[in-house]
Amino acid sequence: MLSAALVSLALVSGAFARAIKPRAVCADGTTVSNAACCAFIPVRDDLINDIFEGTCGENAHSTVRIAFHDAIGWSDFSDKGGGADGSMIAFGDIELAFEANAGIDEIVEDLQPFALAHGISFGDVIQFGSSVALSLCPGAPLVQTFVGRANATEPAVDGTVPDPFNPVDMILARMLDAGFQPEEVIALLASHTIAAQDEIEPAIERSPFDSTPALFDNQVFLEVLLQGTAFPGNGSHEGEVESPLPGEFRLQSDRDLARDPRTACTWQSFALDHDTMAQKFSAAMTKLSLLGQFQDQLVDCTEIIPQAPPSSRSQAFFPAGKTFDDLELTACDNAFPTTLLTQEGTTTSVARVPPQ
Description:
This protein is mainly alpha-helical. It has one domain: Orthogonal Bundle (Peroxidase, domain 1). The protein contains 13 helices and eight strands. It has a two-stranded antiparallel sheet. A two-stranded antiparallel ribbon has the order 3-8. A two-stranded antiparallel ribbon has the order 4-5. α3 packs across α7, α6 packs across α7 and α9 packs across α13. It is globular, with a radius of gyration of 22 Å.
């Protein structure tokens, strides 16, 4: 009986080994689980070298941004576009005219010819490109990444991308229409840790949303909680609150979501826990990348996405000159600690993201 059991176990183990054996060896010697991923190895390398120039810079930031703007053109309840299908590029003449997509034309100008030269779809160059971009940002998580999307057949509908000046009710309703709960909305906003504004205030383009835009850390979640200075109640800034850090730009939507009772506790928890923030962001980005797609018709090529280097900072800190007393907090189950470290110096001034 024992001998028969051992034989049976050996047969099962052999079958399992055959099942997980890589099915292809690529030209560069990389072993992959699906041969289709081999074609994306040179795509990955050329993105890193030619589009992103090996840095977590402006083009990497912009590719993560377009991944959201392209995919969120989707509704679970009505016909609002094809989701993560590259329509932002395929129908750029329409979608780039939408106010919420201002400034995306520059990365489209880079990614469109790149996709055509490599023979991949616009949806794939955006979503695969976003995962590759994140791999250059220290502290960023690995995002499960699929390829094999068909090109878009229709544009998204204007208004599907939340505007940073929309009230929280409108933002959460739009995101729920696309299948995202409030906690997932905040998780997606972790991308703002490597983001900057260009079109809201063109005179101060490339102004980052936190003081460490080259790191995928949780600093943005802490700094948006700092008390800001109200703009005069007129003109385009009406109701907006300026960041207290010179050179840093605060989005009205970030400020409001950080203080809304439906999302504030998630926001505050991310300010205290980089690993959970990164994990939740990764899951939300994968979900985003599959909007409008059938996962079983795509190929998982996560194994060829590099792992980002660790961040030099594992915990958010108070910028120089700021303390716990400068925070605007919401009462949550877990009390916000008063023991976070403070950066040395008397004041923090935030530099713009270098052009690329």
